[in-house]
Amino acid sequence: MKQSIFTIVSNTALTDVVYKMVLEGDTSAILGCGQFVDLRLPEKYLRRPISVCDYDESTLTLIYKVVGSGTEIMASLPVGTKLDVLTGLGNGYDTSLSGDRPVLVGGGVGVPPMYNLCKKLIVEGRKPQVVLGFNAASEIFLADEFRALGAEVYIATADGSVGTKGFVTDVLKDLEYTYFYSCGPMPMFRAMEKVMTTSGQYSFEERMGCGFGACMGCTIQTANGYKRVCKDGPVFFREEVFA
Amino acid sequence: MNTKVNLCGIELSNPVIPASGTFGFGKEFAELYDINCLGTFSFKGTTLEPRFGNPTPRIAEFTGGMLNAVGLQNPGVDHVIKHELPEMKEFFHKPVMANVSGFSIEQYVKTCEKLDKEEQVGWLEVNISCPNVHGGGMSFGTDPYLAKEVTQAVKAVTTKPVIVKLSPNVTDIVSIARAVEEGGADGVSLINTVLGMRIDLNRRKPIIANKTGGMSGPALLPLAVRMVYQVYENVSIPIVGMGGVSSAEDVIELMLAGATAVEVGAANLVDPFACKRIVEELPAVMKKYRIENLTDIIGGAH
């Protein structure tokens, strides 16, 4: 983990409520895909944990949904704003287990961390398939970027306006894959538990205090005991959580 | 410039102490900086049996700080003695403050008795003020008779200094402080968090699963200063002050109110380097206020 100052180089809307923020700064503490950063925002006491969508040596891309007053402030920050950021938080995905044809499942604001993961899997010579779940066509983001990486992309929308009508599980039940990686809301994980046929990894979301393992604010119970989503996670093996 | 203070017979290189529940068992912070720069630290509240704590969400926020209802998640005293303390020995070489909670006098006694035997433990901080657990914790800290009884019972089985951590969720904190002094406490620490609640406007329900949570953060400083000031005038044992501290100035303010040492809580969670920064800023701030020896200013505002 590292604490450093980042500068916003762009902050634009992708949909009505989803924004993309690109920051410049020292990303050396980010060790892999599926980790998150913790931003200190003006007028807010607690930091905001946001998953890393993509990064390179000097830039960090975050995609976030405006869900409350904190993310509202984030969306209003102009280019040039300097932010105090903790980087390199959480464990991230283990790509060594993916097999040749893993499936990446992102639901809503769980989609962004799949991007960097997809990139890495392709670099490692895998052929990832990506299943994205949204409520409606107007809420879709990142699908073209996944296609540009060379991934096979399937979309499910709850209202049927694009792709398969229904949920990610309606796509997944007919798909063949060697392993799965997922990030999204708990109800999506529960639905996936009924259809997934391989081992896999889930990335969890939880309200956090510190983001680096000190306060025990985000603990969940697992088959291997109590785990802090921020420090022991956010990524957990399927077998650990839904034993 | 002398930052040393003496807390219940043990010298601290400076009065800065990360507060229990905001510093774990030190490990996460030792990865970031050499935590031997601290006076000491108060480790995660430990109970006789392991505890998961409360369901999540456990955290909420407000303009001047945060609320938590972790509910004393900890691995239990035996695990702490067998695993956390030996691990801590590798990166922390000073006496540590052992924070203890319980749900009955017997549990406090048994837990303290075990930790008292550990060489690394310098002080026992007996938490009779956790607002986030039911049927224990704070109930001992809101009744002077019970507070005294717990203190006496713990003192009877321990040799190390016993510091009783007091709740601000009372009408008269002085009466509780006096009661634990009568019970034989070697010191008091105050204040624990203040019971609060936030409601989610979308769901129209409390944000925290436990409904209520303990408030901490900068908004609490004036309350802490007032309570330390009042207690200082009414007891003769040392006070560890805490509540909303996030700078060297805040440390000095609480010491002027009557604190011998000062704990830093929520600040560690938003700035992992907060305590290191405060320790490093102390000499310059002392110079600014013409303080040669920190001990000289304890209770200086009276």
Structure commentary:
The complex is a heterodimer of chains A (243) and B (302). In chain A, the strands form three sheets. Chain A has a seven-stranded antiparallel sheet. A seven-stranded mixed sheet of chain A has the order 11-10-9-8-12-13-16. In chain A, strands 14-15 form a two-stranded antiparallel ribbon. Chain A is globular, with a radius of gyration of 17 Å. Chain A contains six helices and 16 strands. The mean pLDDT of chain A is 95. Chain A has two domains: 2-89, Elongation Factor Tu (Ef-tu), domain 3 (Beta Barrel), CATH 2.40.30.10; 95-203, Nucleotide-binding domain of ferredoxin-NADP reductase (FNR) module (Rossmann fold, 3-Layer(aba) Sandwich). Chain A has helices at 69-76, 112-123, 143-149, 168-172, 186-195, 238-241; strands at 2-13, 18-24, 36-40, 48-51, 54-55, 59-65, 82-89, 103-107, 129-134, 152-157, 164-165, 180-183, 200-203, 219-222, 225-228, 235-237. By secondary structure, chain B is an alpha/beta fold. Chain B has a single domain (5-297), classed as Alpha-Beta Barrel (TIM Barrel), CATH 3.20.20. In chain B, the strands form four sheets. Chain B has a seven-stranded parallel sheet with strand order 3-15-14-9-8-7-6, covered by helices on one side. A four-stranded antiparallel sheet of chain B has the order 4-5-13-10, with no helix packed on it. A two-stranded antiparallel ribbon of chain B has the order 1-2. In chain B, helix 3 (105-116) packs parallel to helix 4 and helix 6 runs parallel beside helix 7 (248-257). The relative contact order of chain B is 0.17. At the A-B interface, strand 14 of A face strand 4, strand 5 and helix 8 of B.
